[in-house]
Write a structure and sequence with these properties.
Shape: globular
Number of strands: 6
Structural class: alpha/beta
Distance between the termini: 69 Å
Helix content: 25-40%
Length: about 180
């Protein structure tokens, strides 16, 4: 079978349009883990999304997960918001789907306030969805109960379900 120049041009044009269309459907995700976990928890999810042609960023939060060695009682919600904001800015990400799991919902809410023009969609995955001026502790405390504070030790909230502290990866104390 012989191709003429017009046939080659049509084939090339179809490929370019097809690739451009496939690329245009690519989504960029920024997945924010919860307080006791780490970016490692979403590795398999990221792999599956990347197989479909999407980009996935999984920032590890200061003092948590992979960065728990930086844990310090001065770390606050704003520190974690800054971690994600800086990932978005330094990677020059735009039109992103921002996903927050658990405490990550608090973070993505703050990120959305900081960079609203960079975000296409917010996804709260089994996450905290705060109102203005609400904190994790205010949402977790019930009348007559000190909520998460009962697990506090030396300024950190210790995950009570972690029994083997030598195994990695694992959930780690949070601030």
């Amino acid at each position: 079978m012989k191709f003429n120049k017009l046939g080659c041009f049509i084939l090339f044009f179809s490929l370019v349009v097809g690739l451009k269309s496939a690329y245009a459907q690519q989504t960029t995700y920024v997945v924010v883990h919860g307080a006791w976990g780490g970016a490692w928890q979403f590795k398999k999810t990221a792999n599956e999304l990347e197989k479909e042609g999407h980009k996935v960023y999984r920032p590890a939060l200061t003092g948590l997960g992979e960065r728990y060695h930086l844990a310090d009682t001065s770390i606050r919600l704003q520190t974690h918001i800054n971690d994600v904001v800086n990932t978005i800015l330094f990677e020059d990400l735009r039109d992103i789907v921002l996903v927050g799991h658990s405490y990550g919902g608090m973070i993505i809410t703050g990120v959305a306030d900081s960079l609203p023009d960079r975000i296409k969609k917010l996804v709260y995955l089994d996450a905290i969805l705060p109102d203005n001026q609400e904190s994790v502790l205010s949402l977790m405390v019930k009348p007559g109960d000190n909520g998460l504070l009962k697990f506090e030790k030396e300024g950190f909230i210790i995950p009570f379900w972690v029994k083997d502290e030598s195994k990695f990866p694992r959930d780690v104390p949070t601030l």
